[in-house]
Each structure stands twice: as C-alpha cells, then as structure tokens.
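Run log, item B.
One chain of 158 residues. Sequence copied directly from the ordering sheet:
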Amino acid sequence: MKKKGTLAAQIAGLPKLSTIEMRRLWRELYEREPPKLSRLLLIQKLAWRIQELTLGGLDEETHRAINQGISQIGRKGAIPKPRKVKPRTGVTFERLWNGCTYTVITQENGFEYDGDIYKSLTAVARKITGTHTSGPRFFGLKDQKTMVGWNDTEKEKV
C-alpha cells in the first residue's frame, strides 16, 4: 500500500472510499479477494490492517492464544476458564497496607493468614481490606507466568 498521509489520515479517509475502492484496497493489503462484508466491517477490517502493517501486528503468543480459543469454541462451544495456578507450599507473601504488614503463607490446602486457612489470596485480601479485591493484585502479583514461587524452585519469598 502506498502511504498517503499519516496513519490517522489513512484511516479517516476509509469511509470516503467507494465500495469498489475499498475492495481494491483489500486485495492490496491482504493479497486475497475480499469477503462479502458490510461496508462498516470492510472499513473496520481495513483500518485494522493498515494499523497492523504500519505499527506491527499481534505477537506469536497472542496469535496462539487466539487460535487455541477459536479451536476450543469450535469443539466445546465455549472457551473454558483458565486453570488456577497455585504457588508451591511455603511461599510467603507480604503486603504493607494502611501502616500494617500482612503476611500470608501458602499451605497445601490454601493460604494461611492470621492463623486461619483461606481458599484463595482474594479471600485473604477481602478479609484484610473489607472489600472485594483481587488477591494476586493486592499482593503485587500481576502476571502468573512471572510470579516467583509459582513455578520457581529457587526463591521462597515473593
């Protein structure tokens, strides 16, 4: 595709194109015949493709996750909930909140906080804050893939 102005200008110009011009642009951008789509969907998909070619597309991991989800929908009619991943026994979580330090230790049967066992970190966070909040987020865990103690065998404390 020949660049005609900024990315924003290219996308803003799409609705001004005729259907024939959009279908021609589709062939140029996707290197295949355009599907039979409404004008609005053609504009949206062309805008996506222009952005993808200009800024880069999705990474391979995201493509795999999308394709896996599509495959599961095809087989089961819905995407199953992701399996819950629990850190190994003995991992300690600490959080300073409202001037107090709260400590949670992972046990075989849940999470120990203040002498009681809770089913999840979220239940512990709810007990501490009095509100519904994400336990992993409350304890500073954003991405389970990178959580120390989830699959790591070297460190004991998060």
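Observations after the first pass:
- The longest helix spans residues 39-55.
- Confidence is low (pLDDT under 50) at residues 144-158.
Flagged for discussion on Thursday.
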